[in-house]
Design goal:
alpha/beta, Rossmann fold, 56% helix
C-alpha cells in the first residue's frame, strides 16, 4: 500500500486521526514531529529556541526523506512541512496526500495550550487569531495541492477516518 500522508495546519487533527487511520488500516503510524524529536533528543520548541526555524526545517526535510522511503504507513506531517516543495515531492512520490482543514475558531480552540506550538506561541491571545489567519492564507495554495481534503471542524477523529477510508477505497488505494 502507498503511504497516506496527512498535511494541514496545526490543530486540524493530523495526529489523532492519523493514529486511528493507521490502526484501521493495520499499518505503521509515523508522526513526523515526534520522529524529529526522537531522532534529535530534543523537543521541537527547544530546537526552534536554540537553533531557529531554518535549522528545524532542515531536520524536518531529512525526516521527510526517510519516511518517504517507506511504504504501508500513515504519516502525519507538521503544519509547515508543505512549505518546502522538495518535501511535498518526496511525500507525493510514495503516497496519497490528504489535507485536513479546520475553521480558524476550531484551530484556536485546539491550539490554545502554549508551549507546544512555537510558530503560534510567540503571539499574544489577540494576535494568535491574526497569526493563524495569516499562516492559513500564506499556506492555502500549498494545502490545496492535496489529493483529497477533509474539513475536520465538526467531525470526530473517527468520522475523519471514515471519510479518508471511503476516499482511499474509491481510488483503489485500499480494498475492502
Amino acid at each position: 500500500m502507498k503511504n497516506v500522508v496527512l498535511i494541514g495546519f496545526m490543530g486540524t487533527g493530523k495526529t489523532s486521526s492519523g493514529r486511528m487511520l493507521a490502526q484501521k488500516l493495520g499499518c505503521a503510524f509515523i508522526d513526523l514531529d515526534q520522529k524529529i524529536e526522537r531522532d534529535n533528543g530534543r523537543r521541537i520548541p527547544e530546537i526552534f529556541a536554540s537553533e531557529g526555524e531554518a535549522a528545524f526545517r532542515a531536520l524536518e526535510h531529512q525526516a521527510v526523506l526517510e519516511v518517504a522511503g517507506r511504504r504501508n504507513a500513515v504519516v502525519s506531517t507538521g503544519g509547515g512541512t508543505v512549505k518546502d516543495p522538495a518535501n511535498m515531492a518526496a511525500l507525493r512520490q510514495s503516497g496519497v496526500i490528504v489535507c485536513l482543514r479546520a475553521s480558524v475558531e476550531t484551530i484556536l480552540e485546539r491550539t490554545q495550550k502554549k508551549g507546544d506550538r512555537p510558530v503560534l506561541d510567540k503571539a499574544d491571545a489577540g494576535d494568535r487569531r491574526a497569526a493563524i489567519e495569516s499562516l492559513l492564507k500564506a499556506r492555502a495554495s500549498l494545502y490545496d495541492d492535496a489529493d483529497f481534503v477533509v474539513d475536520t471542524s465538526n467531525l470526530s477523529p473517527m468520522q475523519v477516518v471514515e471519510k479518508i477510508m471511503r476516499y482511499l477505497r474509491s481510488r483503489g488505494v485500499i480494498h475492502a
